[in-house]
Amino acid sequence: MQVTGEYEPVFTGDRRARLDAILTRYPTKRAALLPALWMVQEARGWIPDTAMVEVAQALDLTAAYVKGVVTFYTMYHQHPVGRHFIQVCTTTPCNLCGAEDVVRAFLEHSGCGELGATSPDGRFTIVEVECLGACGFATPVLIDDDFIDGVTVDKVRELLARYP
Ligand code: FES
Question: What is the tens place of the pLDDT at every residue in 27-78?
Fold first, then answer.
């Protein structure tokens, strides 16, 4: 991978200063990879290949190594997503309690239509995820950084309205 064309770097100005401050907290540059990737996602909404190259250069890593990490963690987006990213647990315990119906309600009321797609108004992208660690509180949902448990079909519409 290479940075070509009109790439606008992420780590300039205040962000570069933030990254430098983060680097002082770790024994190696490599150890700062996850927070550096968060900064990219914060700035761009997702992590394009070109940004992976920039991160690799900043941390003295290979772009392939950075891509391996980005593709390992589901929390890093490899393509543009809606303003609000919704993760619904559909692992067996939640599934038995109606998680599939909750997912269907999210897809319908958000306008996304299908998993991984972004709603036409750009507000939402919805994905299914494995256990969110709240198996006794089906159905748990993450909307951006908000953890919400006990979501049922009848709560979905009101929940979406909280995220303009
Ligand atoms: S199975 Fe859904 S939170 Fe654990």
Answer: 999 999 999 999 999 999 999 999 999 999 999 999 999 999 999 998 899 9
Which atom from ligand 1 is nearest to the alpha carbon of 140?
A: 3
Tell me, using a 6 A CB cutoff, whether residue 140 lines ligand 1: yes
Taking alpha carbons only, the member of 57, 69, 60 closest to residue 9 is 57
CATH architecture of 84-161: 3-Layer(aba) Sandwich (3.40)
What is the chain's length? 164
**Sequence-ordered list of residues with C-beta below 8 angstroms from that of 64, at least 6 positions apart, any chain:** 1
Would you state the pLDDT for residue 4?
58
What pTM value is reported for the model? Answer: 0.81
- Which CATH number applies to 13-72: 1.10.10.1590, 3.40.50.720, 1.10.357.10, 1.20.1250.20? 1.10.10.1590
pLDDT digits (tens, 9 = 90+) for 110-162: 999 999 999 999 999 999 999 999 999 999 999 999 999 999 999 999 999 99
Report CA(90)–ligand 1 centroid distance (Å). Answer: 7
Report the separation in Å between the CA atom of 157 and the middle of ligand 1, taken as the mean of its atom positions: 22
Answer whether 47's CB lies under 8 Å from 67's CB: no
The structural domains of the chain, with segments of one domain joined by +, span 13-72, 84-161
CA distance 67 to 46: 13
